[in-house]
Design goal:
The protein has 774 residues and is of the alpha/beta class. It contains 28 helices and 20 strands. It has a seven-stranded parallel beta sheet. Strands 16-17-18-19-20 form a five-stranded parallel beta sheet. Strands 2-3 form a two-stranded antiparallel ribbon. The longest helix is centred in the first third of the chain and has 22 residues, at 40-61.
């Protein structure tokens, strides 16, 4: 059937785009600047060239209005804090002295000043810098970045659409500044913030912006009546401004629900809605609200968070339904393309037929343009594209890669008993203490040690054939020996082998499991200059052979102290991959859990007494609506227990989580039934320790005392002060001492000094404890 052309011809657009460049030029320039090898002017020139290339590519593909202002040196929420003048007092002098260095000080800290807290952007693996606000916060408009990038695009002949984090989302993401009462609600600052947004909007209009996009993803979460009223007030005021561009309010990652009615009634000029993650929700709610008469609708019908090709016929059906619900309907991805890699055509090592199933940012842009053309001019004009799309979808659905009968039979045979330890924690704990003989406040690290230039060179040499496998393994052994030697000399109690053989905590395992595909250039920003290459989970999962036993056993042979076996948990293996979308996530998680169970059991059989199964994504993957939490947490915690419950009582199971709002999932953390959990806590000043105590968490915990995402070296006194805070919530008999996260991204000099101070702090606190604490 041929779709009728839209009354106002549909246009293609995108919410935002990856920042790094084809070869991660931005990462290299910023890190060069930090090391003094790149000047500020050279960094700015690289950034301008990357923006220019992105806009040109989008325009040539057929995108009408290009996003500006979404480009960032570190994080778009941090950029918003700068835009509204919300610079913490401890960073003000640095910002005033040099805006660029002050910006990076807010992001990373300095030796003397702590950075802003960092946590996950909704249910993604992208990390943002948390705004710090209080009753004394004074907002001021600093729109230079946004205005400059808008003007830059105009000068290049493009139609810019500046993108700003909306005022409601900004305030809902903020936290009380240090020293401010914990019950302070940043949303109470809305009336103080709106005039600043009004000033920024006026500045953008003067710079030539016809439209401005205000992102409000916080409105897809459960919101109180007061918060919805605040959103109504905000957009009534901003929409009522005389001196403003047209306003496009964008939401993504789910269903707006009641907030859709609020925004539909507001005097704004358009809405951008997600029609992928919301299912039929936004479509039904939009129809129930009477549509958007006289307004623009940007329809996010291409999934902006996963890498599978779009189902064009399904999208066109949705778009056809939407035509009668708005004055004009434009086509987009469901969210910013920041969350996917740049270009699938760069992947030369994936089978060409499988490669046709993949769509990265560039391919998604092409899909959006095809759909817009079909919507505007009729589906006959895209008949060839539709036929090719149908063939590619059928190829994937029928591929042998996707189904393994043996894996499915094993998964179907799982029983409830497979997900339970043989003894309760109290009995296991006694057995583990007798077996391990650890002191009070045992010290350890999370797993990885610095990935040096020598290690990266060794991997490159192996790939290029400059060294053989035997030569590579000797280099890995040398690194393990050095890491073990340092840990023993520093006085750590439970050691790690440092993971020198691992490129990434998910990719390393994905490359050894069936059903996964690895990319060579599929980089996605995690935070700042940290980029990861999420593997593609395309089919059923199994473990052909042991993955970590050899190196863990080798490390244990070098020391009498316990060495942890280190694995990545099933939820994180899903969350930090581009996961298959053709079966329920819980089914895929069970497959991964069974593969990991085999590895856990083999580690134990090899003599490993402490095994850590990391689940940093457990909170990240929590659905944004509370009604969906229970179903998710049931399969998520079950999959962890399935992976870890086959061991003896005296084998100690650890898990690790970082950079998330743990208070939302304390019961789920309890339900994992791990013997020890380590968590990020340094930037949040031991908040998680208090949350565990309030819940009555009965097991051992290591809230971090060393913020590894900052180049700062915490002093012994600083680490000891955090430990004392931890002891206010967790008794010494159950408190561990560790960094916030793995040390892969840090350099050796700061790592050595920081861990030596951490051990010294633990010894200092042990000496202060009464003898009965033991």
């Amino acid at each position: 059937m041929t779709a009728k052309p839209a009354a106002a011809a549909a246009r293609a657009t995108v919410y935002g785009y990856p920042r790094q460049g084809p070869n991660r030029e931005l990462k290299k320039a910023i890190e060069g600047y930090w090391k003094g090898r790149v000047t500020a002017d050279a960094l700015r020139a690289t950034a301008a060239e990357l923006r220019r290339g992105t806009w040109q590519q989008l325009a040539e593909a057929g995108v009408h209005d290009v996003p500006t202002g979404d480009f960032s040196y570190y994080d778009h929420v941090l950029d918003t804090s700068v835009m509204v003048g919300a610079v913490p007092g401890r960073h003000r002098a640095a910002v005033d002295a040099d805006a660029l260095d002050g910006y990076f000080a807010m992001a990373r800290g300095t030796q003397d000043v702590a950075p802003l807290e960092m946590t996950k952007w909704f249910d993604t693996n992208y990390h943002y810098l948390v705004p710090e606000l209080g009753p004394d916060t004074v907002f001021t408009a600093e729109s230079a970045k946004q205005v400059a990038e808008c003007a830059e695009a105009l000068a290049l002949g493009h139609t810019p659409r500046p993108v700003l984090v909306g005022p409601i989302t900004y305030l809902l993401l903020a936290k009380p500044a240090p020293g401010v009462a914990a019950d302070f609600e940043p949303l109470t600052l809305l009336d103080r913030l709106l005039p600043v947004y009004a000033e920024v909007l006026a500045d953008l209009r003067a710079a030539g912006a016809e439209w401005v996009q205000l992102d409000e993803p916080a409105l897809v979460q459960d919101r109180t009546p007061a918060e919805l009223n605040a959103a109504a007030r905000a957009y009534r005021e901003l929409g009522g401004l005389a001196d403003r561009p047209k306003l496009l309010v964008a939401s993504y990652f789910g269903r707006l629900g009641e907030a859709l009615t609020v925004l539909a009634k507001a005097p704004v000029d358009g809405l951008a809605l997600d029609f992928t993650e919301s299912g039929a929700g936004n479509l039904d709610d939009l129809a129930a609200a009477g549509g958007l008469p006289g307004k623009r609708l940007v329809a996010g019908v291409v999934n902006g968070r996963n890498i599978w090709i779009n189902d064009h016929e399904k999208s066109l059906a949705t778009l056809g339904t939407l035509l009668g619900l708005a004055d004009r309907v434009d086509v987009s991805a469901s969210c910013s393309l920041l969350h996917v890699p740049l270009d699938a055509d760069a992947e030369r090592d994936i089978d060409p037929q499988i490669a046709r199933w993949l769509a990265f940012a560039r391919q998604k842009t092409e899909e959006i343009v095809v759909l817009a053309r079909g919507l505007a001019d009729g589906t006959d004009t895209i008949a060839a594209e539709l036929a090719a799309n149908r063939a590619d979808l059928a190829s994937r659905a029928g591929a042998a890669l996707t189904r393994d009968p043996a894996v499915r039979a094993r998964t179907a045979a799982v029983t409830d008993a497979d997900g339970r330890r043989s003894q309760p924690y109290t009995e296991r704990s006694a057995a583990q203490r007798a077996h391990l003989g650890l002191p009070l406040l045992p010290t350890t690290t999370i797993g990885s040690f610095p990935q040096t230039t020598e290690l990266r060179t060794a991997r490159a040499d192996l790939r290029a054939g400059r060294i053989d496998e035997a030569g590579y393994e000797e280099r890995i052994k040398d690194e393990i020996r050095e890491v073990l030697s340092f840990q023993e000399k520093a006085g750590l109690d439970v050691l790690v082998h440092g993971e020198p053989e691992r490129n990434d905590m998910v990719q390393y395992f994905a490359e050894q499991l069936t059903g996964y595909l690895a990319t060579q250039h599929g980089w996605v920003q995690s935070y700042g200059t940290r980029y990861v290459r999420p593997p593609v989970l395309a089919g059923d999962i199994s473990r052909p052979e042991p993955m970590t036993v050899r190196w863990t056993t080798y490390a244990q042979s070098l020391t009498a102290r316990p060495v942890k076996g280190m694995l990545t948990g099933p939820v994180t293996m899903l969350a930090w991959s581009f996961v298959r979308d053709d079966q329920p996530l819980g089914d895929t998680a069970r497959q991964v859990a069974l593969a990991l169970r085999d590895e856990v059991n083999d580690l134990e059989a090899s003599g490993t007494s402490v095994i850590q199964v990391d689940e940093p994504a457990l909170r990240e993957t929590l659905p944004l609506r509370a009604a969906e939490h229970a179903a998710y947490l049931e399969w998520a915690t079950e999959s962890f227990r399935l992976a870890t419950s086959g061991v003896r009582p005296d084998t100690q199971i650890h898990t690790h989580m970082c950079y998330a709002e743990f208070g939302d999932i304390v019961q789920a953390i309890d339900d994992l039934d791990a013997d020890v959990i380590s968590l990020e806590a340094a930037r949040s000043h031991m908040q998680v320790a208090r949350e565990l105590a309030a819940h009555g968490y009965p097991r051992e915990a290591g809230p971090g005392v060393y913020d590894i995402h900052s180049p700062r070296i915490p002093s012994t006194e600083e680490a000891a002060a955090l430990l004392r805070k931890g002891l206010e919530a967790i008794p010494a008999s159950r408190l561990w001492v560790n960094p916030d996260c793995g040390l892969k991204t840090r350099g050796w000099p700061e790592t050595r000094a920081s861990l030596e101070n951490l051990v010294a702090a633990a010894r200092e606190i042990r000496a202060e404890l009464p003898t009965e604490a033991a």
